[in-house]
Amino acid sequence: MTTTSSAASTATAADVVSTTDERLARLSARQRLLVRPEFGALAGAFVVWLLFAWQAGSVWLSWQGTATYLDRSAGYGLTAVAVALLMIGGEFDLSAGVMTGTTGMFAALFAVHSGLNLWLAMALSLLIALFLGFLNGVMVIRSGLPSFIVTLGTFFALRGFNLWLTQQVTDKTQVTGIVDTGGHDIARKVFASNFVTIGGVGFRVSILWFAGMVAVGAWVLMRTRVGNWIFAVGGNRDAARMSGVPANATKIGLFMTVAVCGWVHGMVVLLQTNRSNVIEGVGQEFFFIIAAVLGGCLLTGGFGSIVGAGLGCLILGMTQQGIPLAGWNNNLYFLFLGVILLLAAFANEWIRRWARTASRPTVDVPDTAEVAHAAATRTTTDD
User: Fold this and answer.
1) Does residue 205 lie in a domain region?
2) Can you give the residue range of the structural domain that contains 259?
3) Taking the model in full, what pTM does it have?
4) Residue 223 lies in a domain
5) pLDDT single digits (tens) 86-106
């Protein structure tokens, strides 16, 4: 009888603890949605679209309005996607903006003033971009300095070098004559043409480049081993290294990815305008970071979403184009941008704290008397 009672007591306690833990550890569908890093950006994009649909009316809802803000969003997203990956990996790159003008300048100089085919000139420009990204990564790793400081130095160095070089070669800060170079027509189709025309309005291929980058970036981050490495080095670099993650190679690779995306952005701008302007992209590095933050990326690294960063770019594009279409003062853009940035940052932090509390299982240990009573009742019934 005593043995039966003891066994029943143990089984009852285990049943109660197991049932309670499983129930409290499970998140509802609503909670799972809210804890997604891109949820805030999705909600924000929807609200911003509704706001300008209300204020701008038919102009905003037209194909022309849609093409305008999508193209503007792509202008941010061509580089912001890679910047978001880098931020999730725990680093910043303030030279991401100037990379647009740098790569466009080198491609234009090689094609126009060296007589190279434009495709070869673009390939050489890509190699230079890869080297600059590699250099940024190595300097951050070897020096141990914050990437904010290292890449800020790279930003000023490139900006000054670009101005000096173009003035030495052309006596200007621009390089023209791209349209007359070999390979221009095909290159323009790849980087600067309209991929579809709807209602007489052309949608630029840069939108496809942007969408493709978001898709590839999201797949790498969520479905590959490299994505796990990025989250790991962003969360704790030393712990990731001790776990076998190639932390240094991962971070250098992320800097090189930013440079490659900056090169794509540079080629798009170069072939859309048919000229190179060395100050192109300067100042946009902060917009890339803002887009990533709007998309749920933390400034401390280890958390974020590429889809969210893409939605953040969409918010920026809609805001920049929606304000003049709504007839508002253009100076309100930065006010609007600052407000939504603060709201996004506060909302992301609140959601993360709430998610940690909601998903933490709290197991109530059953009272000893209740367990004994349940065991005795079960034993009596069995007898």
Assistant:
1) yes
2) 37-354
3) 0.83
4) yes
5) 999 999 999 999 999 999 999
